[in-house]
Amino acid sequence: MTMLDQPAIGYDDGDIDTNVSANGHINDLIALRYSRRQTLRGGLSAMSMAVFGGAMLAGCDKDDTRRATTVTAGDATSTTSGKTVTLVGTVTSGTASSTGWTQTSGPMVALSTTSTGTATFTAPAVTQSTVLGFQFASTSSDGIRSIADTSVTVAPAILDFTAVPKSLADVVAVPSGYQVAVLYRLGDPINGSVGAYANDGSDTTFSARAGDHHDGMSYFGLAASGTTPDASNSSRGLLVMNHENITESYLHPNGPTNLSSGVRPTAEVLKEMECHGVSVIEITRGTSAWSYSSTSSFNRRITPFTPTSFSGPVAGSALLYTAYATNGRTGRGTINNCANGRMPWNTYLTAEENWAGYFRRDSGDNTRRAAAVGAKSVTAFSRYGLSERAGNYRWTFSDAPTSGDTTRVAKFNATIDPTKAADGTQDFRNEPNQYGWIVEIDPFDPSSTPRKRTALGRMNHEGCVVGRTIAGVRPAFYMGDDAQNEYLYKFVSATPWSDADATASNRLSIGDKYLDSGTLYVAKLNADGSGQWLPLVFGQGPLTAGNAAYAFADQADVLTHARLAGDALGATKMDRPEWTAVNPVNGQMYLTLTNNSSRTAATTDAANPRAYSDPKTTGGQTNGNPNGHVIRLRETGDTSEATSFTWDIYAFGAGADLNPANINLSNLDATNDFSSPDGLWFARPSNVAGQGTPLMWIQTDDGAYTDVTNCMMLAAIPGTVGDGGTRTITNSLNGVTASQTTRIGKAPGTSLKRFLVGPKQCEITGIDSTPDGRTLFVNIQHPGENGGPANITSNWPQSQATGTGTGRPRSATIVITKTDGGIIGL
Q1: Three-state SS at 739
Q2: What is the pTM for the complete model shown?
Q3: CA separation (Å) from 294 to 217, 225, 227, 290?
């Protein structure tokens, strides 16, 4: 083509609109009401200045005179689960009409805010380091919003207190930052019918006073107004506790009369009896402290005189016939109540432990019993320690007339009267069979009758703790039989759990549903770390009438004589199985094995591996397994319905100075060495301490270490079954040396610390908290137990304030709180 062929065109400078995007014009941006001032004063202001110069800003200011604030949210911080975190937002310029905090990321927490820009929250439970994001916002008086962000990194919970040193002082010692108050003491009145406790041995009417030897205990939240349970109430509740035993020397002006021989005064005997049992009291938290209400309509004492009923497979059995309970369905009283259990349907389980010692059997009663009832009865009584003896405190040698006394003193004489009915309905030959049960109490109904739950078996019950309750799964209840070389048991209900039952109003009927029908199992622990739950079911295996050692007649016979059934099944003999506790997160069960003086090098096994001598600084030594250990189980499939499990030993009690190769296997040091673990409890899952990596508490009842320290309580964040390894140790005792292989958990290290040391000659036992975890209740049992009126060996709790005192000691419940109001232990 030539130029002549090209069309003629005019001039084009390219000034045409080819931008078809949705971007706005500068005037549109300036006109935006919400962001204009933020753009000019905020992150874009510097860029605008560079491009447009000061004239642009001045021109914009003339268009809109509103002002924004500037804010800061503070630097990023870090903390651990359970700690109280404070966020501080600051308005650094301008006038704010409102400010506020919101959470932008991470596990949600409850923010408590103030008008000053401060917010607090409790760091949530986590199992690994977790970042939480927060934003502080301010709205200016001109309606413009300004924001700033910050973050808090939360690490798993730690025991954030300095370990309490061992002590022989006459006070309850707790870490710095904690405080102790005494709440409920032996003899305190629970109604208006009695006066203040004189504490000189003259006091009477213990049916209306606190009993002695405070032990297992549970807190039940109570509605702020009314009479119904409120599981979340941490400022008003019912405290239910056991009164296991008595220190009889302090209960009378000059000690007990004729304790070793002769006739005992009836008034003294009845006082001693009434000091046993259970208390139900109402407690409230005021503006500064907790107190109990001495006149609450909920207050109640359950004693050896309180009517009871039997339920489950043994109810109505001839084994329970007595002159009081001629139909085998009723009874009177509960005694030697040790550990406990709080049921998810708001009832309290109390365990009858060392009941056998209270019964009198005269010389020759074995012969009379064999002739009247059969040799089988003698075998059964012997297996439960019901020997021919005078009975604890010689109650039946009182000067009360025994004729017609069918419900109080006379019932503790189990000697057969051969002139009475052979079925036991005219004497008390069968009265011991009415004890050794788990007893269920409804704390919200003072008129209700406690029920003895026979499906859970008869033994030296230390307690009864329910495992995790999962809808549609049959719940399990774990129990120790507290005596040397006895067994661990589990009861699995026949009824799958229903969440609706947690708030039912017919609480004892719900107990019928879950506790009266099911399967009782006994534990066999194998050397390879496995284990089986063996069913105690009549007709299965050796549990038949053909058993040579003991001919079982029916299921009632099997349950009444659970020890004999465990023998027949080959259960593992343990070093005094005491309290059980279940990790609320993973369902693993822990059991304290307090000690065993009869353990020898030849009789150790993998689950009870130590036999040794522990010397005392005051001379002599204790032998066997004097310091005990804590064992733990993981159910197969992590389900309560399992019939098999794995196990290892979480921690071995020992002095820090003992041989780490064969005795101090957990490498305990001065901050956490202990002896004779007894009480055991996991923090409630209703607060952070019971979530994520839950906090566990261990209490001691010591005989081996009391030359060095009073009894104590330790806090732990335990690991899981199998987190350690296998160890072979060498036991040397009484000239015998033998090796034993066992399974040891990871050394606790700083995840086990001594939190509390009690006063002289006490036992630390019984523990629960409020649902929020900010108040801890602990029982101090029998301080000064080795003394008497002429030789008072402790003045606690009078000595708590100053370390000294003059009065007689009293068992009591204490309240522990953190001075900053935080969650206990974390």
Answers
A1: strand
A2: 0.92
A3: 18, 18, 17, 13
Of 205, 212, 206, 450, give the one whose Cα is nearest residue 333: 450
Say which amino acid occupies 347: T
Closest CA to 520 of 259, 250, 313, 761: 313
In the prediction, which pLDDT does 726 show? Answer: 98
Polymer length in residues for the chain: 826
- DSSP bridge pairs for 763: 781
Q: Read out DSSP for 167-207?
A: --SSS-B--TTEEEEEEEETT-BSSTTS-----SS----GG
Q: What is the pLDDT of residues 649-680, one digit of tens each?
A: 999 999 999 999 999 999 999 999 999 999 99
Instruction: Find, among 782, 585, 781, the residue nearest to 690 by Cα.
Output: 585
* pLDDT > 70: percent of the chain: 92
Name residue 489's beta-bridge partners: 479, 522
Instruction: Report which residue type is found at 410.
Output: A
pLDDT class of 30 with cuts at 50, 70, 90: very low
- Strand bridging mode 518-525 / 488-493: antiparallel
Q: Are strands 77-80 and 145-155 parallel, antiparallel or unpaired?
A: parallel
Q: In the structure, what pLDDT confidence band is assigned to residue 465 with cuts at 50, 70 and 90?
A: very high
Write down the pLDDT at residue 407: 79
- Measured between its terminal Cα atoms, the distance across the chain in Å is 92
At residue 50, does pLDDT exceed 70? Answer: no
Residues 6+ apart with CB under 8 A from 734: 600, 601, 623
User: What six digits make up the tokens of 825?
Assistant: 């232990």
